[in-house]
Each structure stands twice: as structure tokens, then as C-alpha cells.
Amino acid sequence: MGANPVGTPLAALVVGVALLPFLNPKGPFNSAPVDVVMVAGIGLVLVWSGISRARLHLPYVVPMACLVLAGATAALLSHAPRAGATAVTQEVFLLAWCAAVANLCRTAETLATVLRAWCVAATAWAGFLVAAVLSGHPTWAGMPSSEGGRARLLFDHPNMTGNYFMLSILVVSAAGYPRRPVARAGVYAVLGAAMLFAGSNTALLSLPIALLFVAFVKLRRRTDVLTASVLVLCIGVTGAVTWTVAKEPVTTAIQSSDSPLVKYSVGRSSRSAAARQDLFADQFTLYQSQSLIGLGPAGTRSALDREPVQTAKESHNDYLATLVERGPLGVVALVVLIATVAVRAAGIHRLSPAFAAAVPNPAALTGAMLTFLITGLTHEVLHYRHLWTLLAVIAALHMFGRASKHRRVDVGPTVSTYPRSRRRRARSQSHVW
Questions:
Q1: pLDDT tens, 251-296?
Q2: How far is 127 from 168, CA to CA, in rounded Å?
Q3: What's the distance, CA 315 to chain centroid?
Q4: pTM for this prediction
């Protein structure tokens, strides 16, 4: 791989991160164009580990092994074993991608490169989407008539698009990139506009919750737990009261709006909530009539097709989908996975100086995980590629970036490669976040 053994696999990972929205057109077994680059990145990381003799880690392997085992068992005995096998294969692939990114990001410089690639690429994708909409080319932004004017770009659906841009806002905040506040504010504006054009109600709801968490952590560093809790609670109550007062005129304005985007995003929230309640009730009834091992991954819709229900759809809820499709063992595995992520996310708030320079605001990453917990109530996010990329970043920080860890890494640059002024700024910022 030349003089720099990290360079080639890092380049592949950077391209994979940059192409995360490139999910269509679909290939065999629900594969996407970006998967080709991701597979190459995984292979190159394996080659790199063999050349450099770097020890490989498999974050989240225990809960994912249980989740895969529960899914494979249910798929073998289901009515749609091929769909179940495809879902299980996707999970193994995403775990491998997560491990590849986490292992290569064992130095602050490689992690910073990956995060900056995410920030730049997400801004470019968002800028293209916004420009396409404003210039009167909705098809370029992925706005089919069936979505009611909501942009999906190259994602599978607009809700995934909104989730990606919402997450990218938090990644930009975590990385503090661009460094100049004015430029960063412009990036937030572009990403926020793209998220609005996607019309995802869940993204619009979960982002403020994540920002409240970030505000709590920042206040906690400067004051104490009680003061920070009171201030954040006051902000939350103020927002709730404001919404209560403004709800009726806002709802009236939404209902009378001629904008398809408004009608099919915020305007459909009450109808969407009622439809999901009926769907969840039908799925729970379906689970009660099935065996304990579940009906197999991705098998909810086909099973509902055989039942006398009003609407047959996929689960739209990761927690209920795990119960219905993988049984109690799958639920236990999912709970363990969430707990594992929570422990790792809670342990990344005190970083070494070099990693603190690369991630000056790690609380934003923890806030991002909160958004996925919320989104999982209304969508199935377990197979989102950008979720597993985020999990890889958190795993890398937990394994290699914490201030309490003083392990030597056998490849890549050390903290001494950073300019002295950069290290001083990292030390001054580490106590804030």
C-alpha cells in the first residue's frame, strides 16, 4: 500500500461516507451503489490490518450476533425465508462496515478526516437538493408525485432523507467543522433547508430534543447538574407552552396552505399518527397469533397481506418489528445493543487532547443517538447505513479516544503531529464539552 498503509483504506472509507445517500438504483438483494465502495473499504481495512498487524476490534458483536441468530432462526421457519435471509445478511454487512470504520479511526487524524468528509459531502448533497428545488427541477431532488412534494434525493424515502440531514447537522456540531462559526452557520442553514424539504416530522421533532441534550451537557460543564437541569427544563416548558398557545392558528394555517410540502409533512401528522396506531395494533395482534420465534425479518407486510386488516405495511417501528419478526430473543438482543451503545456514548465526553481537537463537541454524537431512539418509534432505522457509520465513530472514540486511555497505537500519527496551537485549543475546549 505504499509508504502510508492507512492512506488507501482511508480513501475508500471516505468515499463510502461521502456516498451514503447513494442508495438508488437498487441492485440484487436490496443492495445499493454505495455498497460497492463499502465492501471495498472493508476489504482494504482487512488488508491493512494484516500488513500493519493492528489488532482488530468488533464493536457491538455480542448483541448483533444474538439479533442475527434470532433473525436467521425465524427466517428459516418463515413464509418468506429469502427476505429474512437478505435482512440478516444486511446486518452482518453493516456490522462489518461499522468495525472497519471504527478500527481505522484509531487515531485522531483519521477520525477527523472521516468526520470532515461527512460534513463536506452532506453539505454538498444538501446544497444540490436545495438548488434543485429552488431552480424548479424537483425531479433532480427526488420529488415524485407520490410523495406529495417531499424530497428524497437518492434515499429510499423522504423520512430517511430527513433523518440523514438531521444527523449531519449534529455531526457538523460534533466535529466543529467548518472551523469558522460563520461558515458553520451557513452549513447549518443548508442542511436545515434540505431537512425541511424532506418533510420528515420525526426529524423535525427529534432535532430539538438532541439540541436540548447538548445544551444540558454544556451547562453541566459550566455549572452543576441541578442548575443545568432547571435551565433546560425551563427551555423545554417554554417551548411546550409556546406550542400550546400557537397550535390552533398554526394548525389552521397548515390546513389552508396550498403547499404540497406542508400538506404532506406537518399537515399529515395527525393522520399519520392515527394510521400508525392502527398498524401497530394489527401487528401486535399478529404477534399473538404467531410462534414465539417470530415470523422472520422483513416478514410483517407479507404476513399482514394474509390477514383481514385495512392496511398491510412494514412495521414502521423498530421495537415492535423486532418483537413480531424475531420474538423475545430478538427484543433482548436489541435492548442489549441499545445499552451497549448508551454505555459507549456516555464514555466519550472526556477525550484526550488530540481527539478533543477532532471532536470538540462529543455531546452532539450522544444527542444523535437519542434521535435514533426516538425515530425507531415511528420508522425502522436498524438498517440505515448512516446509523452504523455513527455507531462506528462512537465506538472509535470509546476504544481509542478517551482521556483515561493511554494505549499506544501501532500505525498512524500521534498527538505530536498536530500543531502546538491546535493542541492548546483542544486542552482549553475539553473541559467545556
A1: 555 555 556 555 555 555 555 655 566 666 767 777 777 778 888 8
A2: 13
A3: 19
A4: 0.86
